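Reopening this one. Same input as before:
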Amino acid sequence: MLRPHDVALQPHEVRTTFQLSDLSAAATKVIHGDAPGLDWRVNVGDRSIVFCGDTNGDNGNLEFLAKGADLFVAHNAVPEGETGAARQLHMPPSVIARIAKIAGVKRLVLSHRMLRTVGRESGTRALIAKQYAGPVDFADDLACFN
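Same output, byte for byte:
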């Protein structure tokens, strides 16, 4: 049975909110304009996946949450150079790359692709490769990643 509960965190807190045997989930606050946002790290045994939702990546929490993750799933909702409201809510490729590099993630998967980013995969990959040397994949519906 699922039991929902509120997760209230301090500005730079990362807290494990669920623990059961070798499965745990931790969350941290992220910036998504005026809307509250949380990003999550799920650990299963010695493997870890970080799920990044909508965020501009500006508060430093995501680098800490994603430290050493096996898989970092980051949204790719805006292209490089995006300005205005969209940039206040989302990370361009250079910010995704910076976070992946600082966190030392093993693999990056770009999800939450939108019309303004679909079709720009080669440019996005090239921008990310300037900072992050690990493998980069683009998530499509029903895609699986090791």
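So the earlier flakiness isn't reproducible anymore. For the record, The beta strands are 14-20, 23-32, 35-44, 47-51, 71-75, 108-111, 136-138.
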